[in-house]
Amino acid sequence: MGQHPKTAWSNLVWNNWNIPKHSVVAWMIMQDGLNLRTKLYAIGLCPDDDCILCGEQPETSDHLFSEFRFTSKVKDSIADWIGKPMPDPTALISANRNRLQWKAFACVQTAFWYTIWFQRNNARHQLCVQRPDIIAQQLKQLIQRRIRSKMCNLESNGAIDWQASIGFMC
After folding, report:
1. 164 vs 76, 143, 167, CA distance in Å?
2. Looking at residue 153, what is its pLDDT?
3. Is the overall model pTM greater than 0.85, yes or no?
4. Residue 5's pLDDT is what?
5. What DSSP string describes the chain?
6. Burial of 84 (0-12, 13-18, 19+ CB in 10 A)
7. Could you report the per-residue pLDDT of 25-60, keeping only the tens digit for each?
8. How does residue 154 score in pLDDT terms, banded at 50, 70 and 90?
9. Are 115 and 76 in contact (CB under 8 A)?
């Protein structure tokens, strides 16, 4: 396939703390490759471009992953849990990638994207959506399990203190 320049977002997407299926969805988001209704409508594959979850706005990446009130409720729950606002993906891309917290926040971000995309597809194919508080709780448990499995071998005081502060203890 040859050599290709490394993208600025590759470390966020292919972080080894991410769950692989989360990385694939994150990669599709970065490549603008999700089959959002705005795209499908533009090529005549669906009758309108309304968001499947709210029916009020066009279904774009910005709407689905950041502007939508449903998404905001999930983000707010996760922010309450981690004790700070959900990291902005742009800030994560440009941040110091060597820190444990960066790896954990990258894992949180990709898990969040995957979960919202999963709920969108669930609404489309199963005609049901879980409440944002339930989604946030499931997301929290998923992230805790993943990060706990990655951090259990780390014994530095800083890592242990940080793990304890947000519930990632082994």
Report:
1. 21, 14, 5
2. 64
3. yes
4. 80
5. ----PPPTTHHHHT-TTS-HHHHHHHHHHHTT-S--HHHHHHTTSSS--B-TTTSSSB--HHIIIII-HHHHHHHHHHHHHHTSPPPPHHHHHHS-TTSHHHHHHHHHHHHHHHHHHHHHHHHHHTS----HHHHHHHHHHHHHHHHHHHHTT---HHHHHHHHHTT---
6. exposed
7. 999 999 999 999 999 999 999 999 999 999 999 999
8. low
9. no
**Residue 78 contacts residue 140 (beta carbons within 8 Å):** yes
Q: pLDDT for 54-96, tens place per residue?
A: 999 999 999 999 999 999 999 999 999 888 888 788 888 888 7
Are 17 and 147 in contact by the 8 Å Cβ rule? The answer is yes
Which pLDDT score, from 0 to 100, does residue 2 have? 78
- C-alpha 12/C-alpha 89 separation (Å) is 8
Q: How many residues does the chain have?
A: 170
d(CA 109, CA 12): 9
**Residue 28 identity:** M
User: Tokens 């849990």 appear where?
Assistant: 81
